[in-house]
Automatic annotation (TrEMBL):
One of its GO terms (biological process) is phosphorelay signal transduction system. InterPro entries: Bact_response_regulator (IPR050595), CheY-like_superfamily (IPR011006), PAS (IPR000014), PAS-like_dom_sf (IPR035965), Sig_transdc_resp-reg_receiver (IPR001789). PROSITE patterns: PAS, RESPONSE_REGULATORY. Residues 15-131 form the Response regulatory domain. This is Response regulatory domain-containing protein. The keyword Phosphoprotein applies. Residues 143-213 form the PAS domain. The modification 4-aspartylphosphate is found at residue 64. The keyword Phosphoprotein applies. Keywords: Phosphoprotein. It comes from the Bacteria. Pfam families: PAS_8, Response_reg.
Amino acid sequence: MQDHADLIHPDTQASVLIVDDDPTNVAVLQGFLEDANYNALEAFGGRQAMEILNQITPDLILLDLMMPELNGFEVCRLVKASPQWQGIPIIIVTALDEIEDYNKAMECGANDFLTKPVQLHLLLERVNEHLQTGLMTKELRQNETLYRRLIESFPDAIMVHDNDRLTFVNPAGMHLLGATRAEELIGKALSDFIHPMYLDIAKDNLLRMREADRATPPMILQFIRMDYAIVNVEVIFSPFTNQDQPAALLVMRKVDSPIPHHVTDHDSPNQAGGSHEVKT
């Protein structure tokens, strides 16, 4: 057997659930994975696999397809349909070698497909690969959750202005504009909430942001809330990328200070004959 010490999982023991109705196959895979520093769990059929999953969530599943009662296709569908388990990588290990079997397994949500007799060194490489990918995906999701919590708890209003429309508003932003739900603001134009006297200023600063590709200095604009109350708001426009498209990130806070004289004297777009649309 080829030395596989260089492929041993570097972190704490990851658990791999082996699902196969052939005890010999299970024993071979279990011994090999344990030598590679994995915690190998065993299930001698689809039903037993589901019972184990209800008690333990493994890091990866090696799944045979041809099993009585509950076959591998059905197990794969059940796992991938569950929010609790759908992130578990599934590697099919089967004697079936037709293209139709491969396609069906992929449609059921399998992550990989190996045919028996499987090369153990190749199997270990695939196990390592999918576990590392799963770990990175899990970390990304955790980071996304953390960032979203930070933004949602941030005391300043945060909004994303994309393609001339608001596409994200945090709770502080909803409060600032007098909305009770984000849906009241999402999809609306930023210009719907800026006092007409300050639309040109907003447009000019968005243009400067795009040209310089950096955040604008703080400025004070007047916004019109959903209850038609007028509030003075300090705004910073920052360049932002949303789904590979240029956008603007707005950080805003209500201020009690009066509007500076040179701002209050600014001509309105109506007087200048300009467009009221604020372009990202």
